[in-house]
């Protein structure tokens, strides 16, 4: 996750989340966790990286609560509760409540279609710090992307319900070719409902998305998008207060830094921030937990490091695969020879997906 505005401007709507992650990293070596509590979902999104495979067994409630305790022992990392659709679990409010009772900073990732007034009130009562909801474009396009009619209107309703209750919001999307024309619409909706960020995740052609390789944006399309962000939102004040959070594309920040340098701006503070924490998080404090409790290098990759209920997380952090992924000196190809490898590190996910080598070069790099 790359927070572009926070890197290059004083504005940082996600400062509290970043502070929680860094505090946990210092305490126990784990900064953030994406916990996929279920792969069940009531949508059929065309791009879903989890789609098309057999649903795994899920942890029961008592096992899930033990996972919370294990994460507490690991330092209370910034915790993303994801799926599938987490609200399909009957015990999801108990899991969220346990996390908040123990002082975690918690982000719930939900598709928004199950957020009724009662659910919104309960999320507000529990004190969930942020709810992240995907939006792909206007009604007709969004519904075609999720393959469920009416899903767009339910997303808008959920944003209104949560915004009215003062719950922190993030609007998510995937940067696919067909979505890119709707980016301004997505930011408009985010601003309308007071979202703190728009999370733009690069499209990865896996799962159902494997059939949509034509949707992978070109490097020039990404550069054009970044140029518009620089002009309108980093040097300008458009969508003021909304963070640009980019997922699975660390080189985007390096591109922005170089463009600003070319324009004569001082980027030393941004460089200093990247020197303190590499943009590619795999092997650098980030972990994922599967529905059955397996600890993964990433929720996008089938690379198992252990099991959260069976293994000590500190020992998992010593796994050679984890350590190698976080060691920029071991990178290969263009990433290995890049002068920015300690700042960026390339996407280890995309290196594996496209080359089969976790330490290989990131072929989507935009610099």
Polypeptide structure, described:
Helices cover 39% and strands 14% of the residues. It has 367 residues and is an alpha/beta fold. The protein has an eleven-stranded mixed β-sheet. Strand 9 and strand 10 form a beta hairpin. The model has no long low-confidence stretch (mean pLDDT 96).
Major sheet strand order = 1-8-7-6-5-4-3-2-9-10-11
Residue-averaged pLDDT, rounded? 96
Give the beta-strand count. 11
End-to-end separation? 18 Å
| Helical/strand content category | alpha/beta
Q: Give the overall shape.
A: globular
Rg from C-alpha positions? Answer: 19 Å
Order of helices and strands: EHHEHEHEHEHHEHEHEHHEEEHHHH
**Share of helical residues:** 25-40%
Give the biggest sheet. Answer: 11 strands, mixed
Beta-strand portion reads: 5-15%
Q: How many helix segments?
A: 15
Unreliable residue runs = none
Lay out the secondary structure.
Blueprint: E1 2-3, H1 4-8, H2 15-28, E2 32-36, H3 61-73, E3 78-82, H4 92-101, E4 106-109, H5 117-126, E5 130-134, H6 139-146, H7 151-164, E6 169-175, H8 183-192, E7 197-202, H9 219-234, E8 243-247, H10 251-262, H11 268-276, E9 286-289, E10 294-296, E11 304-307, H12 313-316, H13 320-325, H14 333-337, H15 348-355
Parallel strand pairs: 2-3, 2-9, 3-4, 4-5, 5-6, 6-7, 7-8
Antiparallel strand pairs: 1-8, 9-10, 10-11
Helix pairs in contact: 3-4, 9-10
Question: What would the keywords be for this entry?
Answer:
globular; 14% strand; 367 residues; alpha/beta; 15 helices; 39% helix; eleven-stranded mixed β-sheet; 11 strands
């Amino acid at each position: 996750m790359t927070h572009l505005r926070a890197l290059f401007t004083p504005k940082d709507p996600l400062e509290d989340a970043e502070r929680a992650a860094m505090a946990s990293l210092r305490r126990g070596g784990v900064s953030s966790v994406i916990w996929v509590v279920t792969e069940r979902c009531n949508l059929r999104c065309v791009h879903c990286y989890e789609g098309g495979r057999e649903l795994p067994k899920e942890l029961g409630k008592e096992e899930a609560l033990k996972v919370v305790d294990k994460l507490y022992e690991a330092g209370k990392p910034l915790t993303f509760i994801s799926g599938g659709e987490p609200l399909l679990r009957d015990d999801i409010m108990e899991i969220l409540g346990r996390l908040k009772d123990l002082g975690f900073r918690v982000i719930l990732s939900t598709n928004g279609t199950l957020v009724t007034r009662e659910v919104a009130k309960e999320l507000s009562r529990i004190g969930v710090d942020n709810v992240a909801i995907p939006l792909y474009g206007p009604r007709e396009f969004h519904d075609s992307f999720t393959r469920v009619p009416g899903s767009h209107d339910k997303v808008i309703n959920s944003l209104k319900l949560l915004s009215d209750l003062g719950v922190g919001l993030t609007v998510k999307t995937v940067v696919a070719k067909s979505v890119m024309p709707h980016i301004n619409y997505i930011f408009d909706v985010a601003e309308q409902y007071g979202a703190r960020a728009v999370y733009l995740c690069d499209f990865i052609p896996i799962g159902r998305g494997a059939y949509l390789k034509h949707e992978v944006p070109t490097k020039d399309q990404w550069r054009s998008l970044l140029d518009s962000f620089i002009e309108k939102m980093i040097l300008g004040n458009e969508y003021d207060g909304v963070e640009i959070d980019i997922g699975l594309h660390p080189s985007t920040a390096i591109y922005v830094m170089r463009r600003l340098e070319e324009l004569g701006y001082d980027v030393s503070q941004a460089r200093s921030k990247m020197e303190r924490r590499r943009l590619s998080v795999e092997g650098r404090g980030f972990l994922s937990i599967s529905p059955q409790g397996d600890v993964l290098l990433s929720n996008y990759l089938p690379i198992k490091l252990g099991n959260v209920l069976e293994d000590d997380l500190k020992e998992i952090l010593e796994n050679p695969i984890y350590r190698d992924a976080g060691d920029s000196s071991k990178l290969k190809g263009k990433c290995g020879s890049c002068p920015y490898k300690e700042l960026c590190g390339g996407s280890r996910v995309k290196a594996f997906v496209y080359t089969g080598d976790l330490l290989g070069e990131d072929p989507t790099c935009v610099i």
